[in-house]
Amino acid sequence: MAPTAEFCGIDPEGMGQLATSLSGAADRLTAYSQEFEGKLRQHGISTPALREIADIADWGGTQVSMLHGRIDLINALGKGAPELGSGGDRSSLVRLPDELEDFETAQGLANMYGNDIFVNFDGELQGEIIHNHADKVAKLAENPQAAAAFFALLSPKVRDSLPSLIASTGSKTAKKDLAAFSAALGAALRAPALVPAFAKVRNDLVKPAGSKVAAWNRLALLRGANAPSSVRSAASRALVLDDFVKKPRQDWRAAGPTEIKAYGLPSDVVALGLEVLAGDGTAARDVFAKLGGADVKLSQTEKMKRFLDYAKSAGTGDEVADAFGRVLEAGTEATTENPGQHSPVAAAFALDAIKAVGSFGDGLPMVAKDSMVTIAKSYIHELASGARFDKAVDRASGMGVPENWIALPGVTPAFYLSPGDTHRFLKTFVGDKQLTDDFDVTAAQFRYDTLTAAARLDAQGGTRYFEDTARMFGDLASVEFKATLDVRGEQDATDDLIRDITKNTLALGIDRIPIVGGVKEAGWELTKAYFISTVLDGWADSFETRVEEATGARSDFVLRQKYDIAYILHEAGYPASEPPAELISKSTGNLKTYDELLAEAKREASEDKKWEQVLREKLTPYEHWMDSNNNLDTKIEDASKFQASDQAKEQLRVWN
């Protein structure tokens, strides 16, 4: 039947009739040529034409064999296909792509692996043969329908234990070989369902396997398949996660040392079920929305906590916690959506995730903490808003805007955290200095950008967004440092803050002029220092003393804060007279930063004049310029005080 735009198919019944007819014709031709060749030879007559007839008969015989092979292939691939017609000669038609040669290649590979390699060989030789043909399996991914045919024709016993079978050979290429099978399976799962027999394979993948070991094998094959979200979700639930959420307290280990060594995959089937979801936000959200089915009445947050409870108690807890953290990253779209622009579905998932992990605080398993920082950076708008104490201090975390809330320009949270939930979530990672630094880079950039935008708006309309925004970042700095103190203790937290300030703002080389990026990071570290310096009894004096010991210089932190604020306002175009020429940086053309003035003072210092005296002289025209611009000066003073308020920490005692 010639292909058409609508349908190309083969009728196995009709093809069988053709094969039977061709076989009979070939037999008759063979008999005819033999009979007449013998008679003609008796009379010495040459018979080349009869030999040609015999060749045609031989060709017909080979075609019969080919046709029967294709009939068997078509029938095997067509299992489960609905009949297209309602009777007559179309009732047995099977709708398949017309690339039968690729299907025959798939059939050969399926037969080789299912009935030969894993049956007639073992040990090192078996591993070599598996590897030698794995690239052919991987190549099937280029034709997804052929890949579907391969898995449809592969022995179910082999298919459901492929990872263990490959690993058992001890092959050093086991990981690469399994990846070839996974790639082919993924291509088949992503393609339109044109091979009817593959439907059973797909259905088997998304229903209970009968044992933890069988479930582990299916998940190991799926893990590298990049399967569609619907398959990932259904498979992970059916194979393990639904059972887990109903009865978590049991031994979920399923893989042995051989599989672990071969693939580096977790032995815990719960962890592997989560691995299948990692990187797919749609699948992650779908799983937690449906987890356990109608029988499970837990909220989404409670379901999340169940995984962390298990991770903290099980011997395989790190495997589970690591995968769980990456599943939360995916579900929140922390790496795929922009901060302040999160989709409603991702934001709702993030809100539940933040509340769930926050309840564990610093007790969150270490391997999951890096994922929390990734989420924190992506949801910096929500954390900054969540730290605010100026409005709706009694608010509960939720998607709705709190009553009497006043939005700030440039801050666009998708949900609203309570100060307590903000504080608890920050505690999940601030115990690790490296992770805190990672978050602080984002917080510093966000503070700088948001304050600059607020300053520009104030410059145009006489509003006070700048002060309110400064207060918000003061609150966030306070809540973050309060979380750090709670987790690490005053001594450790303070020592690190001193080191950061030393690194970012005070320990400047004589010839070093900091770039704008440095100003941003210094601004955030100093915001934390100003804020806390007024909070703890006796802390400010001891803090400055220890800075002096570390740097050999005394620093007036509040003074530095003033110049940081002044710099941002001027850069944003807030109305003021032109600064004196000596305050304009030759390298940037903008107002000099405090750090530039400090570096100049150190360069110009001499035995007769210490750098502190030089710095005071350089700051004098700066002060005069600010004093001469009353509106600017008032704004600087107010914003500096807002960022040095102890209100946030004190209120946490009540509202945490």
Annotation keywords:
656 residues; mainly alpha; 30 helices; 2 strands; disordered N terminus
Strand order of the largest sheet: 1-2
The number of distinct β-strands equals 2
Q: Which band does the percent of strand residues land in? A: under 5%
* Uncertain residue ranges: 1-7, 82-91, 506-517, 533-537, 645-651
Distance between the termini: 75 Å
- The number of distinct helices, counting runs of at least 4 residues, comes to 30
- Our Rg estimate from Cα atoms comes to 36 Å
The percent of residues in helical segments reads: 55-70%
Mean pLDDT: 81
Largest β sheet strand count, sense and barrel closure: 2 strands, antiparallel
Structural class: mainly alpha
Task: Give the overall form.
Answer: elongated
Provide an overview of this structure:
- This protein is an all-alpha fold.
- Among the domains are: 12-76; 463-655, no CATH class.
- It has helices spanning 12-42, 48-77, 100-120, 123-139, 144-153, 156-159, 162-168, 174-190, 198-205, 212-223, 229-246, 257-263, 269-277, 281-290, 300-313, 317-332, 344-358, 366-378, 380-386, 419-426, 433-461, 465-488, 490-506, 516-533, 539-551, 557-571, 594-604, 611-627, 630-643, 647-655; strands spanning 9-10, 94-95.
- The protein has a two-stranded antiparallel sheet.
- The chain is elongated, with a radius of gyration of 36 Å.
- Mean pLDDT is 81; it is low at 1-7, 82-91, 506-517, 533-537 and 645-651.
